[in-house]
Amino acid sequence: MSVPNETRLEFAERVLGHRFANPDLLLQGCTHASRLGAQATPEDRRRSANERMEFLGDAVLGAAVAIAVYRRNQQADEGWLSRAKSNLVSRATLARVCERIGLLTHAVIGGQVGPEPPDSVKANLVEGVIGAIFLDGGWEPAVRVVDRLLEAELSDRTQGDADPRMALQEWSLATNQKLPVYACVRNGGTDHAPEYRATVTVGERCEAGTGVSRKKAEAAAASAMLAAIRPQA
Question: Would residue 29 be called left, alpha or beta, if left means φ above 0 and alpha means ψ between -120 and 50 degrees?
Fold first, then answer.
């Protein structure tokens, strides 16, 4: 989703839909704590504006997502809402958002992180940017950005469904005294819309499933296994 030669502020307006009154806040939100380097003291890290923004962004994100799932799913019970919120604010979801919007192009990251930042770094950057928007514009702009960034995930009506992997694990332990064995590989798609294929093995039986993330693919495989074994259970 990157645009050649696009500035950080232009990116914020185009992708986040927010015009920063204080551009320094955006820069701070996009500068990961790894930039401090290995020699940074605890005091340096306490003063890191980015880590403070991550803390703030995490809180704003959680509240905004809770409101969004509550409003969008009028018939859902508390358990479903809690699972949906947990999935939507997870490290894996935020890392996927970071990749989808091209945030890494405008991020400032320490060299020790390596050429491919882990999901934790990507998630922290998203939280940092949300915190920066909250400081720059307040609650309403921050909520709009959260809705914008997570629109695809918020529209997924399965976000709060019980994880079939847990149900399969319980059955497998009770029946075979062993955990299910998963294997997952990238199976195509694009950088912004990947596809994974997972297999799960229980005893001598193996089932497969696909999804846009490893978690989704494993859940699909677990669902296929449960559908296969339940008539026998």
Answer: alpha
Bridge partners, 208 (sequence order): 199
Q: Which residues contact 125 (CB under 8 A, 6 or more apart)?
A: 29, 30, 32, 98, 103, 104, 107
The residue type at 112: Q
DSSP, res 15 = I
Alpha helices by DSSP H, the chain: 8-11, 23-30, 42-46, 49-72, 78-88, 91-101, 119-137, 139-149, 151-154, 164-176, 214-229
What is the dotted CATH code of the domain comprising 8-154? Answer: 1.10.1520.10
User: In this structure, what are the phi and psi dihedrals at residue 110, rounded to the nearest 5 degrees?
Assistant: -65, 145
Between the two ends of the chain, the Cα-to-Cα distance in Å is 47
> CA-CA distance, 48 to 35, in Å (whole number)?
10
Residues taking part in catalysis: 58, 127
- What's the pLDDT tens digit per position in 24-50? 999 999 988 777 665 656 655 555 567
Instruction: Supply the angle between the helices 49-72 and 23-30 in degrees, to the nearest 10.
Output: 90
**CATH class belonging to 164-232:** alpha beta
Q: Residues in the chain with pLDDT < 50?
A: 233
Residue 1 burial (CB count, 10 A): 13
